[in-house]
Structures are given as structure tokens and as C-alpha cells.
């Protein structure tokens, strides 16, 4: 647990993040797991992966937020991601996935939501409110 915390805290430092993202030593590893630094960069990569039959989850990089304003910004970005996916060819495809009792239709592109980014460190009420707003936006799609 201490090792994970140390890695997350170190990775959150802007100089370390820039080093890992820009270094020619790390770039091949980073590129394999990070489709882009922005939604606009990542979405075309996701669309191509969906065309090739993969399931894709877009992730807003980061962990904890330090203020209600940061949590609100993360919530807004989650909603922006959902809107972009809805407009993308990646949302026009569903796949039947086997589940006990029968198959279910699942969209191959989704987002990952972290409660810590929704403001859990600022309180459960804030995190819950932000999460429910994202879920309401997702229901519209």
C-alpha cells in the first residue's frame, strides 16, 4: 500500500509527469496505454480500436482533487467525454457480450470515473453530487 501511494504521489508531480510523457525512453510504454494527452487526440485512436473490435475505456488522468473547484472541473470533463463519445463513430456500434442468463448489448467505448476525482476527499456529499450529475448525463446518451 505504501508503494502504491508513493508512486501515485510521485506521478502527480508535474515535472515527473512531463518527464515520463516526453522522454523518448518512456514514450513507447506511455503510448501503449495513453491514447492522447487530450480528448481530441485520444478519440480518433479509440475510434480506430473500436473498428478493430476492441472495447475502450477513456480515462481522465489524475487521482485526487484538492478542491471543490477541481472536482467540478473533473465532473465537467467527464460529461464532455460522454458528449464526444456520443458524437463519435465509436458510439454507433454495440456488441453482444455473453453474460449468465443471456447476452447483453454493450457499447464498446465508455469512460472511467474515479470518485476521488469527483471530490471524495472534500466529502461524500460533493463526490456523490458530481457522480450523479455524470450519471444523469450518461443516461441521456
Number of helices: 6
- Spans of at least 5 consecutive residues whose pLDDT stays below 50 are none
Largest sheet: 2 strands, parallel
The topology string of helices and strands comes to HHHHEHEEEH
Helix content range of the residues, please?
Answer: 40-55%
Shape: globular
Could you describe the 3D structure shown?
It is a single chain. The protein has 141 residues and is an alpha+beta fold. It contains 6 helices and 4 strands. It has helices at 2-11, 14-22, 27-33, 39-51, 68-87, 124-139, and strands spanning 56-59, 95-99, 102-106, 109-112. Strand 2 and strand 3 (102-106) form a beta hairpin. Helix 5 runs parallel beside helix 6 (124-139). It is globular and about 45 Å long. 16% of the residues are buried.
Question: What descriptors fit this protein?
Answer:
globular; 141 residues; alpha+beta
Quick take:
With 141 residues, the protein is an alpha+beta fold. It is 53% helix and 13% strand. The chain has helices at residues 2-11, 14-22, 27-33, 39-51, 68-87, 124-139; strands at residues 56-59, 95-99, 102-106, 109-112.
Amino acid at each position: 500500500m505504501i508503494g502504491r501511494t508513493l508512486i501515485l504521489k510521485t506521478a502527480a508531480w508535474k515535472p515527473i509527469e512531463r518527464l515520463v510523457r516526453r522522454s523518448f525512453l518512456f514514450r513507447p510504454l506511455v503510448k501503449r496505454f495513453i491514447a492522447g494527452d487530450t480528448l481530441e487526440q485520444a478519440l480518433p485512436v479509440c475510434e480506430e480500436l473500436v473498428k478493430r473490435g476492441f472495447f475502450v475505456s477513456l480515462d481522465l488522468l489524475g487521482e485526487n482533487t484538492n478542491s471543490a473547484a477541481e472536482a467540478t472541473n473533473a465532473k465537467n470533463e467527464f460529461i464532455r467525454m460522454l458528449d464526444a463519445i456520443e458524437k463519435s463513430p465509436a458510439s454507433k456500434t454495440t456488441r453482444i457480450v455473453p453474460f449468465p442468463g443471456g447476452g447483453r448489448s454493450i457499447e464498446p467505448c465508455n469512460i472511467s470515473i474515479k470518485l476521488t476525482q469527483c471530490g471524495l476527499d472534500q466529502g461524500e456529499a460533493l463526490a456523490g453530487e458530481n457522480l450523479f450529475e455524470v450519471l444523469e448525463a450518461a443516461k441521456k446518451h
